[in-house]
Amino acid sequence: MPLTPEKIQDLATFAARLADAAEKVTLKHFRQPIDVDNKLGEAGFDPVTMADRGAEEAIRALIEAHYPDHAIVGEEFGIKDTGSPFEWVLDPIDGTRAFISGLPTWGTLIGLKYEDEPIVGVIDQPYLKERYVGWTIGATLNGKAIKTRQCPTLSTATISTTDPDLFDADDRAVFDAILGQTRLARYGLDCYAYAILSSGFMDVVMETGLQPYDMMALIPVIRGAGGSATCWTGGKPGDSGKLLAVGDTALAADMLDMIQAMQRP
To answer: Does pTM surpass 0.70?
Structure first.
């Protein structure tokens, strides 16, 4: 059953309330001494803090109180499967490495899927007081409409990824080929790169190895602002963990053709 525009707006307003609840936790700990646990142990470094856990607990508590039948997927506390067509997808601090380094490029990501389609997304950077909200037909920054910018060719594009060294050899070859055609690259921005793209100041963000909680909140913001958010083959961002965000949809079509050509045997 399709949702009415009014219902989607009500859910977007509630998603902003969830960001308010997370902000009270995250700002209390940002740029303060904090213990850091490593999820990977000796296998690598994947940090998590009491700010991550506390923010997700605060978000979940509000969802449980207002929409107890809704499903939830969160980075820190896993899956609550209710069979509902509504599913909240949460990353309480996307960019924990930035958070523990005192850099304001982390964000709280709150996404809502309906019948497996992302319909509402929030990218919240409370330290900078920037809240990006997207839904099926629009996007805002602090309540004011935002739009992606026109960028017809890669030669005028600004591109971003969190860290090129995170790509495997094949994906790195694709990224490097695209990177070589762009004008400017910026790295290490986590979810903030997608917010900046949505507000018209960057053009392309490419990532691999993402989880659903890394992506689902971003997609409605990018699309609501007029951009394209797909996997590298042009389909839904999902199990592949590959996200291609492009501000200009015409450039997105050209890039997908380029990527497909590079990945042919």
So the answer is: yes
